[in-house]
Amino acid sequence: MIEAAGLCKYYGPFAAVQNVTFSVPRGQVAAFLGPNGAGKSTTMKLLTGFLAPSSGTAYIGGYDVSQDRIAASPLVGYLPENGPLYNEMTPVAFLKYLGDARGLSGGRLNQRLEYVADQCSLREVWQKPIGKLSKGFRQRVGMAQALLHDPDILILDEPTSGLDPNQVHGVRELITSLGKTKTILLSTHILREVQAVCSRVILINEGRVVFDGPVSGMGSGDDAMESSFRKLTIAG
């Protein structure tokens, strides 16, 4: 469902992503880990077509994103890091606008709006301007737009950023539930989150994949995972 085949992205002489190759099959929840600046967000942008690769190919649901992004787009919901929102709009107006852009209308659009309002706990701010919302609520609006069109694939960049512990718990439960029927690639810095919702870890460092395997391969417990993370991402 998600495939990176030799993805590279260069900015002049700087290599942000170097020969990244992995695939995520249907129904798997995979954690995409790495230190700041490792190339996680860049890789996610390449996979979703927001950036064009310098070389290599990204596939979504079998479609080459560079060649057939319009066909791939309905299959994927993307929550970018610090995703852009229209501050003057309310969540319901923003999501209706996106639903219309996605081809949703009538009863189907209303059904999906009700779903994301409940799943993302947006009822209390449904009619408030997005620019007046806290970081946590803004993040939940971003999650709602990723879920709105009921995609088969979710690519989520730090979905619990800015949330309080209760909200984090709710998002983890939602991801666990969605993972039963959807394919999910989840970027996070929270190792406990990986243990809670993921079955696999793809670890990137300095633009290259340095580990790809089951969560248990990173060790059991926070301390063991942190130790593995450090060994794989700190030179020497």
Structure report:
With 236 residues, this protein is α/β, with parallel strands linked by helices. It has a domain at 2-84 and 152-233: P-loop containing nucleotide triphosphate hydrolases (Rossmann fold). 36% of the residues lie in helices and 26% in strands. It has helices at 40-48, 69-72, 91-101, 106-119, 135-147, 165-178, 191-197, 222-233, and strands spanning 2-11, 14-24, 29-33, 55-60, 63-64, 76-79, 153-157, 183-187, 200-205, 208-214. A 6-stranded mixed beta sheet has the order 6-7-8-3-9-10, sandwiched between helices. A hairpin with a 2-residue loop joins β1 and β2 (14-24). The longest helix has 14 residues, at 106-119. The protein is globular. The model has no long low-confidence stretch (mean pLDDT 93).
Summarize the topology.
Elements: E1 2-11, E2 14-24, E3 29-33, H1 40-48, E4 55-60, E5 63-64, H2 69-72, E6 76-79, H3 91-101, H4 106-119, H5 135-147, E7 153-157, H6 165-178, E8 183-187, H7 191-197, E9 200-205, E10 208-214, H8 222-233
Parallel strand pairs: 3-8, 3-9, 6-7, 7-8
Antiparallel strand pairs: 1-2, 1-4, 4-5, 9-10
Helix content: 25-40%
Tally of individual helices? 8
Would you state the CATH class of the domain at 2-84 and 152-233? Alpha Beta
End-to-end distance: 36 Å
Largest sheet report: 6 strands, mixed
Can you give the mean pLDDT? 93
Report the β-strand fraction as a percent range.
Answer: 25-35%
Strand adjacency order, main sheet: 6-7-8-3-9-10
Estimated radius of gyration: 18 Å
Named at the architecture level, the CATH assignment of the domain at 2-84 and 152-233 is: 3-Layer(aba) Sandwich
Low-pLDDT segments, ≥5 res: none
Instruction: Spell out the helices and strands N to C.
Output: EEEHEEHEHHHEHEHEEH
Considering the protein shown, what is the CATH homologous superfamily of the domain at 2-84 and 152-233? P-loop containing nucleotide triphosphate hydrolases
β-strand number: 10
Shape: globular
